[in-house]
Amino acid sequence: MIHRPLRCRCPGERRRVRRCAGVATPLPLIGLLIAAALAASPAWAGGIKVSGPAIEVSPPRFEFGDLPQEHIEHVTCKVRNAGSELLQIQQVTSDCGCAVAQIADSSLAPGEEVSLSITFSTRHFSGDVRKTVTLVTNDPGSPRTRIVLSAFVRAIVAVTPDAIDFGRVVRGDTPSQTVTLRAAAADTFKVLDVAVPDHIYTTTLERDGTTDSTFYHLTVTVRPDAPLGTFSSTARVRTNIRSVASLPISLDAQIHGFFLADPGRLPLGQVLEGSERTRTFQVSAQRAGHHRVLAVRTSDPRLQVALRPIEEGRCYEVSVTIPAGAPPGRIDAALLVETDDPDQPEIRVRAFGNVRRKHS
Prior knowledge:
Blueprint: E1 18-20, E2 23-25, H1 27-40, H2 42-45, E3 55-58, E4 61-68, E5 72-81, E6 87-94, E7 99-103, E8 107-108, E9 113-121, E10 127-137, E11 144-154, E12 157-160, E13 163-170, E14 176-183, E15 191-195, E16 201-208, E17 215-222, E18 229-239, E19 246-256, E20 259-262, E21 265-272, E22 277-285, E23 293-298, E24 304-311, E25 315-322, E26 329-339, E27 346-356
Parallel strand pairs: 4-11, 13-19, 21-27
Antiparallel strand pairs: 1-2, 3-5, 5-9, 6-8, 6-10, 7-9, 10-11, 12-14, 14-17, 15-18, 16-17, 18-19, 20-22, 22-25, 23-26, 24-25, 26-27
């Protein structure tokens, strides 16, 4: 069959054709033949989408749901070069040692696909966990490709809460807070002992075995004779489970006497030589009583301090001044407030700032 020349849109002009063995082949058909040939070639057989190296990861995310603590999960994903040039995987990293990744090959030809194996450990976690594995490649469009691992880890022993902050405590008061320890395996869990800084806190431990899992209620109480100061420490709960032999609980408290200085640190800021600046803080009673603030002094002779009663026995204002004649230099001074409280004869407040030299 011989094709007749097709009519063109312009009169007198015929569409150009290519004749082969006496058969005229229209140009659109040539395009189809070229596309078919390319699709059959090895480079296009892999489904190359872009020029240059291009990474594809499937799946890019693993959601494990609920996992027990001390569990190891093994997963595999596919890494593919969807580009037209060699893909080089230069580095495989993770944001913690809990996720270890190994790839079968670091150089992928166009259309090539390899496996990436990931081992994820829940040993040191509890609650919601989200970690990432990162592939560093020569793909200009995605030089750092991330694979996300997420899970909710059920603790072997859940500690709720795992931190106690008593805040400000007047010496003599005995606030308490309770921590619940819940074990996943009720028949094997035992608390052996609890260690706390015993000059600050006391503890009581009560077992509740009325539910499917063993509960312990640990109550931590501030001692009435605890020393004054700010304390950050840790309670250690020793158990019979080897993997969680010691459970830490953070303890924080600021214990003060009859009076409290607010703020406990006084920033004076930057002052230009020859300038003057004044800052104030208050010292107030925290309970009913008959104590008084007697005086205030400073460890830095460059500073001027003054005490003003707002309500005698209840509230006082302390002013701290950098005078205009103060020499240049850094200021880091102790402000010492004297009281007639035998438990708190002195309150210490830190004042800090800087006098900058004036340039002529």
